[in-house]
Structures are given as C-alpha cells and as structure tokens.
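To assess whether ligand presence alters the predicted conformation, the chain was also submitted together with glutamic acid. Input:
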Amino acid sequence: MSVRVRFAPSPTGFMHVGNARTALFNFLFARHNNGTFILRIEDTDIERHSEEAVNVIYEALKWMGLNWDEGPDVGGEYGPYRQSERLDIYKKYVEELKGKGLVYECFCTPEELDTMRKEQLERGEPPRYTGKCRDLTEEEKERLRAEGRKPVLRFKVPEDRIISFNDLIKGEIEIHSRQLGGDFVIVRSNGMPVYNFVVVIDDALMKISHVIRGEDHISNTPKQILLYEALGFPVPQFAHLPMILGTDRSKLSKRHGSTSVKEFRDKGYLSEAFTNFLALLGWYPKDGKEILSMEELIERFDIKDVNSAPAVFDTTKLNWMNQVYIRNYPIDKLTDLVIPYLEKAGYDVSKYDREWLEKVVEVTREYFTVLADAPIYMEMFLKDEFEVEEGAKEFVLEDETRLKVIENFYNRMKILEGELTPGIFKQIVKEVGKELKAKGKNLFMPVRIGLTGRMKGVELDILVSLLGKERVLRRIENSLKQLNEKSN
Ligand code: GLU
C-alpha cells in the first residue's frame, strides 16, 4: 500500500509551532517512505476563515521547506483540497448514513443540553447526550419544527462496544463506546457538517494511509473509527504525536514567548535551524546526531522512534542550533538574509559594497544568536558617526595617558602610507605604547574607544582592516571631539 499522509490545518491566521511540527513529521514520513504529502485546508468554519489566513499556512510551510504534492493550489487527483469546496460530497454521505438509519435529528436546545449536563454532574455521572431525540415520531418532529427549532444530526453510538486501535506511537488504545459522551453531532443546526465527520470522509476519499496528528485528537479517533465502519471505509493507521510543553512543563503557550512560525521567522531564526529543532521535538535519531539537514532528517526519520512522552520546547537549545547554522551558512546567502534586518534598523544598504558587506557579516556572525542581532554587531562597521558611551568617556578621562594614546594613534594613522592590514595596525599600536609607556588596558581600550565609542566588540585588527584608513581617521576625529568636549 502506498503511503499517503496529510497535514490538515484550520486557517486560524497563524501557524502554531505544534502544527508546524505535525506538518514536518507528516512530510518526513512521506518522503522517507517515498509517499505523498497532501495539504488539506479544513475551513468548514467559514466565517472565521479568510484568504489571508490560508496564505499564512502556505508561507509557513514554504519557509520550512515542506513542499506538498497535492493541495488546493497544486491540485491533485483527489481534490478539491479545501473542505469549503467539498460540501456536496459531505451531503452525499449524510444521506447514506440516513439511509442506513445510523443518524437522527435532535431538537434539543443548548439550554436543554446544559440542564441535562448539570443534572448528570450532580448525580456524579460523566456528562453525555442521553439519546432523548433518538426515537421521536414524525409528529413530534413536526411539532418541534413548528416551534422554530432547527435540528442537528446525531450519529448513533453503539451501546456496548470496545473500540480499539493500534497507535504507531502510543501503542494499543481501547475505549468503550459508553465513554464517548453519547450520540455525537455530525451536522450542525445551520447545516454545516462537523470536523469528526468530514475528516473521515476526506481521509477515506483521499486514500490517506496514515493519520499523523497531535495527541489532542486521540479522543476523536474512536468516533472517527465508528464513522469509517458505518460508511464501509477502510480504517487508516493512526499516529498521535506527543504534546509540546514549555520548560516549566506546562502546555506551550504565549506565556512561554513566541509560539507562531512567523514570530520565529521574524526574529531571525534560520528556517533550517528551526526545522531541525522541531524535528527533535518528540523524535531523536538513533545515531544521536543533532544537527541534521532536511535530507539527513528524511533519511533517518522513523515514526516508530517517536517518543510518546511530551516534548519540551527549549529555547536555549533552539538558540544554540541557530548559532550553529548561522556560523556554517554560505556567506552570500546569510548576507541576503541579514540585509532586511539592516534596512529595518535604518541602514541604507545600497551604500555598501556587496563584497565588503559580506566580509563584515563573516567577521561578526559568530556573535549572532538570531539574525535580528546582526545590526547590533555590524553597527561597529557600518556607523562612523557614533556616540561615545558614557562609561567609555569616563574611562578615557580617568587617566591622561589614555587620551594621549588616542591622539598618538591618530597621528600615526594619518601619516600611514599603503594598506592598513591587521599586521600594520598591531605594529602602530605597539609603537604608540612604546612612546607613551602605555600597555594592556591603558593601550588597547583607548584605541577601541577611539575607533568604536565602546569598551566591547569585535577584534580591532579585523575592524580597522575592513574600515580602511580614511574611515578610521574620521572615526577617531569623531571620538576625540566628544572626549575633548567632555574634558573641558
Ligand atoms: N483541522 C484539524 C486541526 O487543525 C485537523 C486534525 C486532524 O489532523 O485530523 O487540528
């Protein structure tokens, strides 16, 4: 049997990391098994869904590198792939269930259902629909209709049955039909079919072989199995993925920080790092290798190795992975990714020579955790008109040699002929130290402050060689002006 899996998100306007992980595991499973990865949009809840929300899903999947073989935009043999376009199909199966006598109209109002529930709870019973409308006569139904009531359609749950399935991750699961909360709704009073019903029709007609989804859907599975059986469809294999928790072991939520794919993307996580990190949420490769490309993930991924215990979303680990990816990324591609962050920080990037910019990215990238850090570390290279930090000013003015160091360095720079290499820079600093009898902190720190206005940052020899003599001079002039103002 060929492997066919689907990712079936509802377009809510954002892609939660839990959904992204579900999409990824479906994708890896499909690719590992030379199967088909299908995207289906579950948008029966029409009022809430907009085109924009569907685009959010496309964007997130594309960014993560999860291309689908069948879907609303690419088509396929089993379409349409949007539930809102499949309503006629669902109607046909509603009729089939009616014909088999497996569904009935229920006229109970939300208030009546609520009372029913409260009474059950008071008696210490688990809430369930009692089946009150199961045997209404035609006359009774007419009377209720005449009252203006609009019925829902309920599926008759067998009284005494054990429903079992062998989950590929959770193992053997058994649920008694009495635990399902009674006959459940498959069509709402407004005529819209509900998730548990349409998902079965779609998975069956799209010939889905494995349903891989979050474990929050385990409680739906028995209901779905009853519907597969009622409609005479083969039941697919199920694999329910473990929950994702925050580091405090509570369910991952906004409280833990970012939860949508777009937020991670905007902060400047590389898609490769993010995807690699998500792959390790609940799964771990047998060989223990953690940094894995998509090809390596596909090669190693085995659904049997997915852990049934909850996975912890550890941002520290994600940050570490992102750093690893940033350090090893092709420099031209990394520069492309960094540019929007520079522009956002107000730099006119067109001013800089591309090759020069790449060199700056090369020498600063080891300091980035996320791409949004790039302007902070690159500023030292990009901005000549900086403000000398207060602490740095105080440091220089504490000891008169320090200011002299900057001036002496400036004068020597001015008469320099030829290229300013890291070696020449070191030589000049050495000479300054000799002449003024300054060393260590009294020598290097003033030079750093003169060049950058700060007491911390990248290696100075690299900085000056990338700046060149003219920009070095302008920078020192700028710093000296501020330092002299302060000393007067
Ligand atoms: N639309 C459902 C969700 O987003 C799909 C569940 C399923 O995969 O069956 O949770």
